[in-house]
Amino acid sequence: MQIKLTSPTYSRKHNILGLGKHELLLLMLEFETQPKRASMRVNQVWSWIYCHGIRSFDNMTNIDKNLRAKLKNVFKISLPNIEKKEVSNDGTIKYLFCLEDQSKIETVFIPEKTRSTLCISSQVGCTLSCSFCHTGTQKLVRNLSSQEIIGQVIAVYDDLDLWEKIKAEGSRSSFFKVITNIVFMGMGEPLLNYEEVKKACNVLMDSKGLDFSRRRITLSTAGVVPKIKKAHDEIGCMIAVSLHATEDKTRNDLVPINKKWNLKQLISSLKDDVKLRNSERITFEYVMLDGVNDTNEDAHRLVRLLKGLPSKVNLIPFNSWTGSQYKRSSTDRIKAFRDVIIKSRLPSPIRKPRGEDIMAACGQLKSSSIKEKARI
Ligand code: SAH
């Protein structure tokens, strides 16, 4: 990649937040021609941004003043704006972010007793039109850049004061106070934005920065089959697959991408191509829809489908939204379904809906950009 810092695009400052280390190095070489020194500068800037939450070059005190001034002229470290923040009575926080082009995305912080998860978006909207998912009804769609993906994480660190908490409490910090896990389960299909998602994951996993281990990052996909193996090989993070049905007929209705890659292709690729590491499992998400996919027969079929594949099945009670055609299965039905799966020795937790009162639960995200556009 060759970026000319004198080019007209540089009259607008370049956002370096969320760039890969290699990209940052190429930029830095314009200022420090000696590769060793450039690399040292990258490490310094990296540490300020990702270990200390610093975003002003003036505060990067171990970099000499002249260089700081030059960097400040051409670069910026900028975040998406928090346009709205809603706190649920269960502690879940939903952020509505406004991006530079005024697109809106949502990010959800989910504190629990033993961990805290940040659910981030990979696209504005989603093209997949899963019939039970609210995000799919949003028309505006575009990929997020790595900057915008990482921007969500850093903005939440800032908002919750996590830099200070991490510093003050070190390893003693309570789980609910820091982010322990990142899941790409917000708006969008991460595997349709592969390169930017990969870049963002590499920033998240860098051991001299945010330092999330690959096991604490989960990519959730509706089933973009060729990209699952690629993501597993190249990024190495955990994979969750939104299964939701055990027969093509039902899955075509619920997750239309099934018409492109059907259940057989999906499952055989997971069994044959994806080489799981020690004790690693694929997580399957299964939304419980009353009368659609929730019989004991479905559960037995699910067990047969996953036979031989190290798996875990997350049962998600359907989260309702105005205008949706589905109903949540009853609690008894969900438990009976779970019991069938557990008998086959697959872990099968029932996911507790979080942040329902603020529409922050799975599949309820849909930024208000359309409504607002219409109003304007
Ligand atoms: N596109 C990706 C990630 C986004 S959705 C994917 O499909 O996996 C994250 C999870 O929430 C998916 O399993 C999705 O199917 C599920 N989901 C969507 N709408 C839901 C709803 N209304 N109730 C419960 N879960 C839902």
What does this protein structure show overall?
The protein has twelve helices and 13 strands. With 376 residues, it is of the alpha/beta class. It has two domains: 63 residues, DNA polymerase, domain 1, CATH 1.10.150; 278 residues, Aldolase class I (TIM Barrel), CATH 3.20.20.70. It has a nine-stranded mixed β-sheet, with helices on one face. Helix 1 crosses helix 2 and helix 10 packs parallel to helix 11. The site of S-adenosyl-L-homocysteine (SAH) has 16 residues, from strand 10 and strand 12.
Features:
TIM Barrel, 376 residues, 12 helices, 2 domains, binds S-adenosyl-L-homocysteine, elongated, two-stranded parallel ribbon, disordered C terminus, DNA polymerase, domain 1, alpha/beta
Summarize this entry quickly:
The chain has 376 residues and is an alpha/beta fold. It is 34% helix and 16% strand. Strands 3-4-5-6-9-10-11-12-13 form a 9-stranded mixed β-sheet, with helices on one face.
Report the biggest beta sheet as strand number plus sense, adding barrel if it closes.
9 strands, mixed
Average pLDDT taken over every residue: 90
Number of strands: 13
Instruction: Write out the strand line-up for the largest beta sheet, numbering strands in chain order.
Output: 3-4-5-6-9-10-11-12-13
Task: Note poorly predicted spans.
Answer: 6-10, 369-376
